[in-house]
Amino acid sequence: MNDSILTSTKKMVGIEADYTAFDLDIINHINTVFTVLTQLGVGPSLGFMIEDDTSTWSEFIGTDPRLNSVKTYVYLRVRLLFDPPTTSYLINAMQEQINMLEWRLNVTVDSGSTTSTQDDVLVWEIDDHEPFPEDAVIGDVGFDPVTGDVWRNT
After folding, report:
1. How far apart are CA 43 and CA 82, in angstroms?
2. Terminal Cα-to-Cα distance of the chain (whole angstroms)
3. How far lies 42's CA from each of 27, 45, 69, 115, 144, in Å?
4. Mean pLDDT within 96-105
5. What range defines the domain where residue 133 resides?
């Protein structure tokens, strides 16, 4: 399987790798989706963008197999932006898939057991009224599952 973000997304959308007429459009849509994923806590905490077909999935999500659904999520969002289905039934079905994947990705990164392979940051599940544990380092993230609050250790 091709690890190139652009090439694999083009393939899923139905565009051959060597056909470059829509590359700018696809790249812009992919980068828009990466912004959403960054807000969900997926990928590097400072964001991620691609400019061509050299950026890879492993650069974005590392090697954590629990984040493999990111590829499907990116495809679905790009497809809705680039070439939406003509029926509302298909659009609604795709949106339901997107919502489910967002929820599952959010649960995965907020579980307190994932680390960012890009930034080496831990996510700690702690009450927002408690301090970070002694072994937490500056930049680690705290998450309160009751309130949903998220903050960085400074």
Report:
1. 23
2. 40
3. 18, 8, 11, 10, 17
4. 94
5. 121-154
